[in-house]
Amino acid sequence: AEMGQALEVLYALWRLDEISGMQGAQILQTTLCAAIDRTLWLCESNGRPDEKEFHAHLHSWQALCHILRDLHSGVQLPGISLSAAVALLERRSQAIHAPALDRGAAHGALMRLEHPNASAEAALTMLAQLSPAQSGEALHGLLALARHQLACQPTFIAGFSSHLNQLSDADFINALPDLRAAMAWLPPRERGTLAHQVLEHYQLAQLPVSALQMPLHCPPQAIAHHQQLEQQALASLQHWGVFHV
User: Fold this and answer.
1) CA 165 to CA 167: how far, in whole Å?
2) Which of 12, 27, 48, 182 has its CA 20 to 30 A from that of 140?
3) What whole-number distance in Å separates Cα of residue 223 and Cα of residue 173?
4) Over the chain, what is the mean pLDDT?
5) d(Cα 183, Cα 143) in Å, to the nearest integer?
6) Residue 210: its pLDDT value, please?
7) What end-to-end distance do the CA atoms of the chain give, in Å?
8) 8 exposure class (CB count in 10 Å sphere: 0-12, 13-18, 19+)
9) Is 214 within 8 Å of 207 (Cβ atoms)?
10) What InterPro entries does the entry give (predicted)?
């Protein structure tokens, strides 16, 4: 079972509930520590969440990261070792057999914790090691946990654009649904900032940001597929000498 909602409630009561006297209560602290231990244990599972559990799974990562970030900032929670939790995140972000979603989420959590080895460049290296379909899942985890650290960083924008340009048309089409779902984690303002960064990267800053945000009249996968068919047709015409570039 996913632990996100349980962690949020337990941690909020332990930290803030003065009215009912639960703030700092020992019994609640014991329960909270057990829930955190359970979540850390689940983080090391190699099972990939299905579509119904996808967002609940990321919610668990987000709730855990929120608690670890507070511990990193000085909050004391006896019974939880921050160094052990960080070591687990390092293992998961580098584990070849771990689900790509978890690798991305673990790396994003390390970025939130300002880990010295968790950078935009390291995130790009991880994405380059994955298949096109997996890179979309990993990006999902990265943006769910560290969107502020990545979405507005020119280094990441340029590197990820280069990564996409290296994909074949078929691989890009296969990866597109997960890539679009990952961008849904960005609020409108951050999505606009990202669009501006992309336009600047391609030296198209004179275009309005809305050029990359306007709704489409058909699925993006269909557009990409038709562009692929068009390129194949042009290549055939060129092969037979009917069309010259």
Assistant:
1) 6
2) 12
3) 9
4) 82
5) 7
6) 58
7) 57
8) middle
9) no
10) DUF5682
Q: Decide: 30 and 77 in contact? Cβ < 8 Å.
A: no
- 3-state DSSP assignment of residue 12: helix
User: Under a CB-based contact definition with an 8 Å cutoff, are residues 33 and 77 in contact?
Assistant: yes
Residues 6+ apart with CB under 8 A from 141: 58, 61, 100, 101, 102, 103, 104, 105, 106, 107, 108
For 16, what's the count of Cα atoms within 13 Å in the CB-facing half-sphere?
5
Q: Which residue has the higher pLDDT, 140 or 187?
A: 140
Taking every pair of Cα atoms in the chain, the longest distance, rounded to a whole number of angstroms, is 82
pTM higher than 0.85 for the full model?
Answer: no
Each residue of 108-131: pLDDT tens digit? 999 999 999 999 999 999 999 998
Rounded to whole angstroms, the Cα distance separating 156 from 120 reads 6
| Residues 141, 102 contacting (CB under 8 angstroms) | yes
Please say whether the beta carbons of 36 and 7 come within 8 A: yes
Token digits of residue 87: 């070591």
